[in-house]
Design a protein that fits this description.
Elements (H helix, E strand, L loop, with lengths): L3 H11 L2 H6 L2 H14 L3 H9 L7 H11 L5 H10 L4 H13 L6 H7 L7 H13 L3 H6 L1 H5 L10 H7 L7 H13 L3 H8 L4 H15 L17 H13 L3 H11 L7 H17 L5 H6 L8 H13 L3 H14 L5 H12 L6 H11 L4 H10 L14 H8 L2 H11 L3 H14 L3 H14 L2 H10 L6 H4 L5 H11 L3 H11 L20 H11 L11 H18 L4 H10 L1 H9 L6 H6 L4 H20 L18 H13 L4
Helix pairs in contact: 1-3, 3-4, 3-5, 8-9, 13-14, 14-15, 15-16, 16-17, 16-18, 17-18, 18-20, 20-21, 21-22, 22-23, 23-24, 25-28, 26-27, 28-29, 31-34, 32-38, 33-34, 34-35, 34-39, 35-36, 35-38
């Protein structure tokens, strides 16, 4: 038999060496208990648990014991829920327990203990099935529609209920048609095809064409395939046109002209579709885009439409139109302050005297800690607004929030290296706190722990923007500075990229697969590692030093490739160098501020503005007395020819 001492020693041996060395005996016993339970060594688990009766993570040992028993100990579960009411772990246990009950046929117990606040589509279907089994068949079938009409696949728990419902008077073909449309909006063609099986006649024919148009929008070139005698074909045409707009708005416009008189499109349907098409053309800076957008009904002059009118005008240097559309935007709805910068530039370009009220707005903009605030301050020759305002919370309030059980557990989970569980505990509290002061206290606490990602996100949730020590921390400072020196970049820029990409969460992975602090894709990391002589490793991307080294080298490559222009290199880091090269190629000789404002991708445009603003803030934090938003040569947009001649050789030089 393995002794307690031996087991604890073994657990410590299996942990990463730096972490194992920091664990105290209690923490080692906790991990040893979990390991013993996982191995089915119940006696050892009980011994270790007994020695941890006053440990902050003891509830998790109780939870794991219940979980190991497959949630069959109902009495233990009820005691647990009473002992830890309104806590994250109770919420989790309650949900998992309910999910286990139908499998054991305990429908009555499920019905008595069901809680709609648990927000689970699987539990909701189990609930409806439990209702049906209890004799409330009509009530269950009447509510099944809401479970069935979804854009995604329903849980398997719903299948038995759906089989009954689909054959009942409560089912209507329109429900299947609605589900098909929702599925296609999410790109789920298999689910759409499944939904089409419940349709007949005109609806079925239109559904088939809608799926076809989703996969191959070019089918819209044929009017014969969409007979106007079938009123549902209108929906197929609209869906196909919206699909075509995504890549070829010009072709979508051609198709629209073919079909618009064939069906009885409502004024709203027509205006919404044309708005999509015309905005698509505007993003491609089509020559007709401005006139087409102007032809929309006045009620469709949304903020987005008017902003793209301004961008199209900026692209063509039509300063009179820039001024006109900014003034329209000003009158119709609340305008983002950034447009006062462009209004001022339009005045200057046309040698128009700037009205006093507009000068007041411009000076007000210059006092903001934003990309356009810094840009405007540089234009006016005023100082940047870089004042740090610490969070306005008292020590007592701070301690009060820090004593919440989930927060205590989150800290301990961080101490033993279980960041994922720590994040779950922390976020549960953030989601339940409405008082901004509570959130500010939590943000300050996370900063004290060095948990910068949570501190940043929590202070944003508190809607407090002026504590620069929390919003713009400098973790892994030596690694960033060393990497910056090696590739001859400013460390402030590297900090800004990491702040924008991950908010300093070293273990984060994006939906697209990007990893670590600087969010590197594995393929990019492999190429960069090979170039600089490092051994490529996908898992090492979660190591801050390794990630920073690769990220800085890749950014340096973009910097050289795009003629040492941080704005364009930053866009390439986000959207990819090939796409940015095409944007440069298709652009006339623009000043860099116009080029940034007219980046076609909303995400990349915001990204570049944020990074440049963050870079300016980090220059200040790192001791630069005179931070700048854009360096001298960066203000002059470089043409594709100049970029090619200046950077081809540099881009081929191996970065240190």
């Amino acid at each position: 038999m393995i002794t307690l001492r031996t087991l604890v020693t073994l657990i410590a041996f299996l942990l990463p060496i730096p972490l194992a060395a920091q664990l105290n005996t209690t923490q080692q016993n906790y991990l040893a208990a979990l390991d013993a339970l996982s191995a089915g060594k119940i006696e050892q688990f009980n011994k270790l648990s007994k020695s941890l009766s006053h440990y902050i993570l003891t509830p998790y040992l109780e939870y794991e014991r219940i979980r190991y028993g497959q949630y069959k100990d109902t009495q233990a579960i009820k005691i647990f829920l009473e002992r830890y009411p309104n806590q994250s772990i109770s919420y989790r246990l309650h949900k998992e327990w309910l999910l286990s009950l139908p499998g054991r046929g305990e429908w009555d117990t499920f019905l008595v203990n069901y809680d709609e606040n648990l927000r689970s589509s699987t539990l909701h279907c189990y609930y409806l099935r439990a209702l049906y089994r209890s004799g409330e068949k009509d009530k269950a079938l009447e509510r099944t529609k809401d479970a069935w009409i979804t854009s995604g696949s329903a849980p398997k728990a719903c299948t038995p209920l759906f089989k009954v419902w689909l054959k009942s008077p409560y089912f209507e073909p329109d429900f299947a048609y609605e589900r098909l449309q929702l599925a296609l909006k999410k790109g789920r063609t298999s689910l759409a095809s499944y939904s089409a099986n419940f349709l007949k006649g005109d609806q079925r024919a239109a559904a088939n064409m809608m799926i076809w148009a989703h996969k191959s929008p070019s089918i819209l070139s044929s009017t014969k395939r969409f007979p106007s005698a079938n009123p549902y074909m209108k929906d197929a045409v609209l869906h196909g046109l919206k699909r075509r707009v995504r890549r070829r708005p010009d072709v979508a416009l051609t198709y629209w002209k073919k079909h618009q008189d064939r069906f009885d499109f409502s004024v709203k349907e027509t205006a919404e579709l044309e708005r999509k098409i015309y905005l698509g053309l505007a993003r491609q800076f089509d020559q007709e885009a401005s006139d087409l957008l102007a032809s929309l009904p006045p009620e469709y002059n949304s903020r987005e439409v008017l902003e793209w009118q301004i961008r199209v005008s900026l692209r063509t240097r039509d300063w009179s139109s820039v001024l006109k559309w900014v003034e329209v935007l000003e009158k119709t709805e609340k305008m983002d302050p950034q447009w006062y910068y462009w209004k001022h530039q339009a005045y200057l370009a046309q040698s128009i005297k700037v009205p006093q009220q507009d000068m007041k707005q411009l000076y007000k903009l210059a006092k903001t800690r934003t990309y356009y605030g810094f840009l405007t301050a540089e234009l006016l020759g005023t100082s940047f607004s870089l004042t740090n305002s610490p969070l306005p919370i008292s020590l007592g309030k701070h301690k009060e929030v820090g004593s919440i059980p989930e927060i205590d557990r989150a800290k301990e989970f961080l101490n033993i290296g279980q960041t994922k569980t720590a994040k779950r505990e922390w976020q549960y509290v953030v989601n339940t706190k409405a008082d901004p002061l509570d959130l500010m206290s939590l943000a300050k606490l996370a900063k004290q722990w060095g948990w910068h990602n949570r501190a940043i996100r929590t202070v944003i949730a508190a809607n407090h923007w002026h504590d620069l020590s929390i919003r713009f921390p400098t973790p892994y400072k030596q690694a960033f500075v060393t990497a910056a020196n090696q590739v001859n970049l400013d460390s402030s820029w590297l900090f800004a990229i990491a702040r924008q990409e991950s908010a300093f969460a070293e273990g984060v992975r994006s939906g697209a697969g990007a990893r670590g602090l600087m969010q590197l894709m594995p393929a990019t990391a492999r190429q960069t590692a090979k170039k600089i002589g490092l051994k490529p490793s996908k898992n090492s991307l979660y190591d801050p030093s390794y990630n920073i080294k690769l990220g800085s080298n890749y950014l340096a490559n973009m910097y050289l490739r795009f003629n040492k222009n941080r704005a364009i290199a930053t866009a390439a880091y986000n959207a990819g160098p090939n796409r940015v090269k095409q944007w440069v190629k298709s652009s006339p000789a623009l000043s860099i501020d116009v080029w940034i404002e007219t980046i076609p991708y909303d995400e990349t445009r915001r990204y570049v503005k944020n990074v440049l603003a963050f870079d300016t803030i980090y220059q200040h934090k790192l001791g630069e007395n005179n931070p700048v938003l854009l360096h001298g040569l960066e203000r002059i947009f470089v043409s594709e020819i100049t970029l090619s001649k200046a950077s081809t050789q540099q881009a081929n030089i191996a970065v240190k």
